[in-house]
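dumping this here so i dont lose it
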């Protein structure tokens, strides 16, 4: 649509060449991604009908011009030039040097390529090779030095001071972008005037900033292409940045061309063509190769001007406002458009543009409240478009596989975070899951499991996955880099996982690697994973590691149902790991405060497995759990958690009740009692809050604390009671009130014989109610 609409508008331009003549050559001074200059560029080529079109761009990418202009290539896309690090500098984390050359439908360079192809005219890039730009980069740079408007010194510590804002402010504009839009983008019907203004602007920049050595080399190199072409100057159209065009008019660079310049002798670069996006173009505003509102100017390109782009944006805003729950109508759009035109007239502009669209939208849709309009309007102005490249374009195999599978598996590729939920009972979702897990293991920045670590443990049994997807240009950079590990995602994932199966001193690490092998469906690793797990389970005697490995093995078996894994392969191993974990619980319970929480996590994992999987010996776990809960050496938190997992509050087990009462006796230090309560309420908060005997014992313990110890214990008690839900807190306070009102047998302690009024109960328990976030009693 962009090309058809653009061509229709070109029918109205003058036939005479509007180009600037420099020593006979038709020079088109451009600003990247300018709709008005893109139209003027096409007008020049159609008027001149040259034999050769030379375009600012790396001349070592000329072999990709056919792919860039292919009919099935959809802009925005970018040339990505990269170089792997030299072997002597390579490290495990070494990344290739990269440089982007982005294009959209209204990039003058791409319009020149497309116009030349349409007319059967030869077109070539004529700028220094990409290898020279890569060589000139600082180590942390990711974009090429760009001289479209202002010269850039790649060795400078700070950027050249910008003239843009100074000029704009002196002419009464708030920003350079507003000034450019008013004076340049509105010159749609006079391309000769537009290109003359652009040339004058380039001359101002060169006069104020000069020409550094790097850009002098570029100028000499590009003019060398003109002279070496063998084409008469009057039959050449040269499409370059405004600063370069001005430099050609002021200086003769022929004597400055040095074919032996160090930058021109740099190592060659490799190229791929990759999709790009409007959000990325908007982010590149700082170095001159982007613009602030790519979709808005796309509309100006397709619809024939800024006024039509304003109308299109305001019309779309109606639905965007409704989607976020605001009231909006087309009457608002009509009023906003009328207001935008009035604002443009007041500001001396020939037609409304970007700023008028925003101001009018805030007034008409937001009723003066900018916050209501900002988010949807920003999305409309910037856009969400992600381009695509021709299947015939040169791509590394992994990059080609990525785009082929995202299309075939219907996985969205967007430059905004997108959620994807998978139900692994569906075959299509299983294939999506395998692909996304391979990307995750290959460390391709595209997909992440939103449940985080929980996906490794409790989420495994649900056979559901929630992913957060987002494409960025870095996705393609890493896809290119990943080719050092293999030609397919399967090969890359295999080579990422295999070394980790050799680290057999840590069962948790080996089990995590084995789980990834199953998630990525890599059956070639299953035998190695089985041997590694068996050996690591013997070497590793850590309870927490054994418990986590058992849970990961159980998840591996669960996922195996969706990954064609035979459960019989891993069930015997899981039984062995489970048995060793049960036997290691008692020694692990004798630990410090920091280790106690990790031991507690392992206890909960094993307790869940023992009651969920029928082929595991539940009695073995309960026997060791009971022994640990009764052990005098067990940490108070571990003992409390163990009693809770055993469900002692619902049992008539005198030994377990005696153990609990000892922890809640005056002889127990408050910090140990609080840790015991935290562990117990973590596992059995609901049952404990409903148990009158336990609530009474807990009440007596709290009431027996001297005031000083009670105040010191408040932080620990707060952490313990924070484990309770609001419902559990309600039942706890209700049970306590019934006890104190005599609805239950009174204990023989002196505290329980004291008659307390309701107001006294409130006074005693209000601090605890505050600590547990319970509402105050009424």
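and the seq i came up w/
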């Amino acid at each position: 649509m962009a090309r058809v609409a653009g061509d229709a508008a070109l029918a109205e331009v003058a036939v005479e060449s509007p180009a600037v003549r420099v020593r006979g050559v038709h020079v088109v001074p451009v600003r990247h991604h300018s709709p008005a200059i893109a139209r003027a560029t096409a007008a020049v080529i159609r008027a001149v009908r040259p034999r050769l079109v030379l375009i600012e761009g790396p001349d070592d990418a000329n072999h990709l011009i056919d792919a860039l202009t292919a009919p099935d290539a959809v802009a925005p896309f970018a040339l990505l030039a990269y170089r792997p690090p030299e072997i002597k500098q390579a490290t495990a984390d070494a990344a290739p040097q990269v440089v982007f050359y982005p294009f959209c439908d209204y990039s003058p360079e791409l319009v020149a390529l497309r116009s030349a192809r349409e007319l059967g005219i030869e077109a070539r890039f004529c700028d220094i090779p990409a290898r020279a730009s890569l060589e000139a980069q600082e180590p942390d740079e990711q974009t090429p030095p760009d001289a479209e408007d202002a010269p850039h010194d790649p060795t400078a510590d700070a950027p050249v001071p910008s003239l843009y804002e100074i000029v704009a402010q002196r002419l009464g504009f708030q920003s350079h972008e507003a000034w450019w839009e008013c004076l340049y983008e509105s010159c749609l019907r006079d391309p000769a005037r537009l290109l003359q203004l652009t040339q004058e602007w380039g001359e101002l920049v060169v006069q104020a900033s000069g020409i550094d050595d790097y850009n002098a080399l570029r100028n000499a190199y590009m003019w060398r292409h003109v002279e070496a072409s063998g084409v008469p100057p009057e039959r050449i159209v040269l499409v370059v940045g405004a600063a370069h065009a001005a430099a050609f008019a002021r200086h003769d660079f022929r004597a400055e061309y040095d074919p032996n310049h160090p930058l021109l002798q740099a190592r060659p670069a490799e190229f791929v063509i990759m999709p790009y996006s409007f959000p990325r173009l908007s982010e590149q505003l700082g170095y001159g190769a982007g613009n602030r509102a790519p979709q808005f100017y796309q509309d100006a390109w397709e619809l024939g001007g800024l006024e039509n782009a304003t109308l299109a944006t305001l019309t779309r805003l109606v639905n965007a406002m409704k989607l976020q729950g605001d009231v909006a109508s087309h009457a608002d759009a009509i009023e906003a458009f009328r207001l935008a035109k009035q604002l443009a007239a007041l500001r001396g502009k020939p037609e409304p543009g970007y700023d008028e669209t925003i101001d009018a939208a805030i007034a008409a849709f937001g009723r003066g409240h900018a916050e209501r309009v900002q988010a949807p309007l920003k999305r409309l102005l910037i856009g969400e478009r992600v381009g695509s490249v021709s299947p015939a374009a040169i791509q590394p195999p992994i990059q080609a596989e990525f785009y082929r599978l995202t299309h075939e598996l219907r996985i969205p590729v967007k430059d905004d975070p997108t959620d994807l939920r998978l139900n692994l009972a569906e075959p299509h979702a299983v294939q999506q899951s395998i692909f996304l897990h391979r990307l995750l293991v290959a460390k391709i920045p595209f997909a992440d499991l939103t449940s985080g670590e929980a996906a490794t443990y409790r989420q495994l049994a649900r056979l559901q996955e929630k992913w957060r997807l987002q494409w960025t240009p870095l996705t393609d950079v890493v896809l290119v880099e990943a080719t050092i590990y293999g030609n397919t995602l399967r090969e890359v994932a295999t080579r990422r996982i295999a070394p980790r199966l050799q680290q057999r001193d840590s069962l948790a690490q080996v089990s995590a690697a084995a789980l990834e092998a199953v998630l990525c469906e890599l059956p070639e690793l299953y035998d190695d994973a089985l041997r590694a797990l068996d050996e690591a389970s013997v070497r590793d005697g850590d309870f927490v590691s054994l418990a986590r490995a058992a849970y990961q093995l159980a998840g591996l078996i669960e996922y195996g149902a969706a990954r064609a894994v035979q459960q019989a392969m891993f069930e015997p191993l899981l039984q062995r790991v489970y048995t060793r974990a049960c036997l290691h619980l008692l020694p692990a319970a004798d630990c410090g405060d920091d280790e106690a929480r990790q031991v507690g996590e392992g206890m909960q994992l094993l307790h869940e497995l023992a009651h969920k999987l029928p082929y595991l010996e539940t009695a073995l776990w309960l026997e060791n759990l009971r022994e640990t809960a009764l052990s005098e050496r067990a940490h108070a938190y571990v003992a409390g958690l163990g009693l809770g997992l055993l469900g002692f509050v619902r049992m008539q087990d005198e030994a377990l009740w005696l153990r609990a009462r000892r922890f809640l006796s005056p002889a127990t230090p408050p910090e140990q009692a609080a840790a015991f309560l935290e562990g117990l309420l973590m596992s059995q908060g609901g049952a404990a809050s409903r148990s009158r005997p336990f609530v009474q014992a807990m009440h007596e313990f709290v009431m027996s604390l001297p005031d000083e110890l009670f105040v010191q214990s408040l932080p620990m008690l707060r952490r313990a009671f924070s484990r309770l839900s609001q419902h559990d807190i309600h039942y706890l306070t209700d049970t306590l009130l019934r006890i104190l009102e005599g609805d239950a047998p009174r204990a023989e302690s002196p505290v329980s014989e004291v008659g307390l009024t309701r107001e006294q109960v409130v006074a005693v328990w209000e601090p605890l109610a505050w600590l547990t976030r319970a509402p105050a009693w009424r």
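The mean pLDDT is 80.
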